[in-house]
Design goal:
341 residues, alpha/beta, 10-stranded mixed beta sheet, 5-stranded mixed beta sheet, 10 helices
Length: 341
């Protein structure tokens, strides 16, 4: 039970960096000596110190480390990247014991970090709150195990099932939901729209009503119909434009050629190569329906304004599942769905 308590604290620390560590995972670490936490740390940003190193640096009396246990929500890394392997640092510091939440399925780690520590004669326990630690890094694990991003479908619909009014943009969700949506953008790695949504709404797809980093914008525009002066082409975020015409880059805009025939699989392969770990599919109805029909999604969020009747417009995607969770935001509700296929 004590190990679970400390791993829970590791998860809490790791969550502080949600949306900021891509393409790295979220990791938290604490150091405990005689039942007292003497060090804490988490991974803040790719390229910077990992959680274990930050936890070690925070310990005032380093002489206590050989008698201490280090807790970490994800298996310590075993390879040289932008920083040296954490497993070697743990070995060098001579910890008494290491407790790991979840093992790392990344092929550069995948048990190697644990082995380095065990071979140094240090006791290792793994799989503590494993389910919660995997949930924390659902994006990271999906990316490495399925070779594609974690996919979130999201749309807002009226009480009578329309996305807009008379095929023109209409504000469906309230201010509270809008804040939630912008926080979602800040938390996820990228956001995707199709040609029609870009043309109809001229969205910026940036974070405005929350604090965080703008997601990578993804535009599916086979014939490059969206004008270059639209907001999606401004310099506020990196933008990937998937099209059938050209492959070139200009500052933050990257045109990537893709075929229509095997579009979804080719898109997943391209996003994997771009190291995109999660994507919000924000529209429109045709694009969303393609992902639904292909059973290619990991989570869905449907915002509904029951009291709003639009009577005519773009029909919401066909989606016949029971929600796993319903959250009320005043007169709006957000239903969350998980796949059942």
């Amino acid at each position: 039970m004590q190990d679970e308590f400390y791993i829970k604290r590791c998860i809490e620390l790791a969550q502080k960096a949600l949306g900021k560590t891509y393409p790295n995972p979220l990791v938290g670490s604490i150091i405990v000596h005689n039942g007292k936490i003497i060090g804490e740390g988490y991974h803040h940003k790719a390229g910077e110190n990992h959680a274990e190193i930050n936890a070690i640096h925070s310990v005032e009396d380093k002489s206590l480390i050989p008698e201490s246990t280090i807790y970490v929500s994800l298996e310590p890394c075993a390879h040289y990247g932008k920083t040296p392997p954490c497993a070697l640092k743990i070995k060098e510091m001579g910890f008494r014991k290491v407790v790991i939440g979840a093992m790392d399925s990344h092929d550069k780690v995948n048990g190697k970090g644990k082995k380095i520590i065990q071979d140094a004669g240090i006791e290792v326990i793994s799989g503590v709150l494993e389910k919660e630690c995997i949930e924390l890094n659902k994006r990271f694990f999906t990316y490495h195990e399925k070779k594609r991003p974690y996919i979130i479908l999201k749309w807002a619909e009226s009480g009578d099932g329309f996305l807009d009014k008379n095929f023109k943009p209409y504000s469906i969700s309230n201010a509270l939901v809008n804040q939630f949506v912008h926080q979602l953008r800040a938390d996820e790695h990228s956001i995707l729209v199709g040609t029609q949504t870009a043309l109809n709404d001229n969205p910026g797809l940036t974070v405005r009503n929350a604090v965080g980093i703008n997601p990578v914008r993804i535009l599916i525009d086979f014939e490059l119909k969206v004008p270059a002066d639209f907001k999606i082409y401004n310099d506020e975020a990196k933008t990937l434009v998937f099209n059938c015409i050209k492959e070139e880059s200009h500052q933050n805009i990257h045109f990537i050629r893709i075929g229509k025939e095997n579009f979804l699989q080719d898109l997943m392969d391209a996003l994997y190569r771009q190291q995109i770990q999660s994507v919000i599919i924000e529209g429109g109805s045709f694009t969303l329906q393609q992902f639904i029909n292909a059973n290619l999604w990991d989570e869905a969020m449907v915002i509904k304004n029951e009291n709003l009747k639009l009577e005519n417009g773009t029909k919401a995607p066909e989606f016949d599942l029971k929600p796993t969770k319903i959250s009320n935001f005043r007169d709006n509700k957000i239903s969350t769905y998980l796949p059942q296929f």
